[in-house]
């Protein structure tokens, strides 16, 4: 009984141990990050964690990815805190506003959230308006001043006290964020954050990205996607000019399969996208055996449709497809112009046999023996008419001048069945 009494407090302490999940966000916000955070929050919820602290250091990222992650944070029943360890810019500032509380290192910054397009230029008015509404909703979600959030994306707001007079985007330092109620406190270390949220003795479980998550983030990166599609399209194009199936085709298929694999791991695509792509390939192969080209057109549409089905951002996937098509067309031009290759697929729809004289074909009987002979015009040549050589009548044309009947002419050209003559000069008689 004495031993049992000594052990019971140990079991009680173990059962009541507080746990905090430490989740890093140290890169750009993109679609692959959603999978990682979703897995982390799900695991924390399953383990009845007392809190999740997202340690943030990001320059921003994709708007659509940020909005999906924000919804994930807003719908989570967990207490979620953000610890800005260096910077939370652009989409990072947006995500921080969906935390229950924000803490920052002394030299951290937050803000500068203007939305830009794929080329790095300022986005159009429609995109800016939608992003402004999202930033305002984020600020109101955490009971913070929405005008400060709007000043982070719109330089027309005037906050000279924070070095952001009219014409400048607002970026807050740690002290300014606390003053503006955009952060609950300043913490030099992660342990100070634990103290600030009332969990100083909590067990900290650090979450790390798995290899598959890292691979998904890499394969779905906005720069990698067009590279994969370009390799895929170029490899398949080269394969169409080559006999059998070789290395170019294998590289092309591998690149495209990596595209789908990355998007499936990231939770952006399902098997239906891969199935549609497979149907497209089958239709393209069927084009080799079917007439009219209908299956080829349907196959191409199916492949493009599968890419759109896998891509979460229509604009990004459209740009990636255009780049891939440009690479494929350039490859076709180079192969045909510099290597003299012909597309195998065209052999069934384009006549490749030539009707040359070397193969025994003649367009008409050519009377080369008539060249230089003299004849008599049976009818006037205006410029066409009839001439006579011996007892043979022949159709002929003059070189352009009128020649009366019963005139002596000389045959100048024989082009198939066309005989060209001119009137004979006196010295030629």
UniProtKB/TrEMBL annotation:
<keyword id="KW-0812">Transmembrane</keyword>
<dbReference type="InterPro" id="IPR002810">
    <property type="entry name" value="NfeD-like_C"/>
</dbReference>
<dbReference type="InterPro" id="IPR052165">
    <property type="entry name" value="Membrane_assoc_protease"/>
</dbReference>
<keyword id="KW-0472">Membrane</keyword>
<feature type="transmembrane region" description="Helical">
    <location>
        <begin position="245"/>
        <end position="262"/>
    </location>
</feature>
<protein>
    <submittedName>
        <fullName>Uncharacterized protein</fullName>
    </submittedName>
</protein>
<dbReference type="Pfam" id="PF25145">
    <property type="entry name" value="NfeD1b_N"/>
</dbReference>
<dbReference type="GO" id="GO:0005886">
    <property type="term" value="C:plasma membrane"/>
</dbReference>
<feature type="domain" description="NfeD1b N-terminal">
    <location>
        <begin position="19"/>
        <end position="206"/>
    </location>
</feature>
<feature type="domain" description="NfeD integral membrane">
    <location>
        <begin position="224"/>
        <end position="337"/>
    </location>
</feature>
<feature type="signal peptide">
    <location>
        <begin position="1"/>
        <end position="17"/>
    </location>
</feature>
<feature type="transmembrane region" description="Helical">
    <location>
        <begin position="292"/>
        <end position="311"/>
    </location>
</feature>
<feature type="transmembrane region" description="Helical">
    <location>
        <begin position="317"/>
        <end position="339"/>
    </location>
</feature>
<dbReference type="Pfam" id="PF24961">
    <property type="entry name" value="NfeD_membrane"/>
</dbReference>
<keyword id="KW-1133">Transmembrane helix</keyword>
<dbReference type="Pfam" id="PF01957">
    <property type="entry name" value="NfeD"/>
</dbReference>
<dbReference type="InterPro" id="IPR056739">
    <property type="entry name" value="NfeD_membrane"/>
</dbReference>
<feature type="domain" description="NfeD-like C-terminal">
    <location>
        <begin position="369"/>
        <end position="422"/>
    </location>
</feature>
<dbReference type="InterPro" id="IPR012340">
    <property type="entry name" value="NA-bd_OB-fold"/>
</dbReference>
<feature type="transmembrane region" description="Helical">
    <location>
        <begin position="218"/>
        <end position="238"/>
    </location>
</feature>
<dbReference type="InterPro" id="IPR056738">
    <property type="entry name" value="NfeD1b_N"/>
</dbReference>
<keyword id="KW-0732">Signal</keyword>
<dbReference type="InterPro" id="IPR029045">
    <property type="entry name" value="ClpP/crotonase-like_dom_sf"/>
</dbReference>
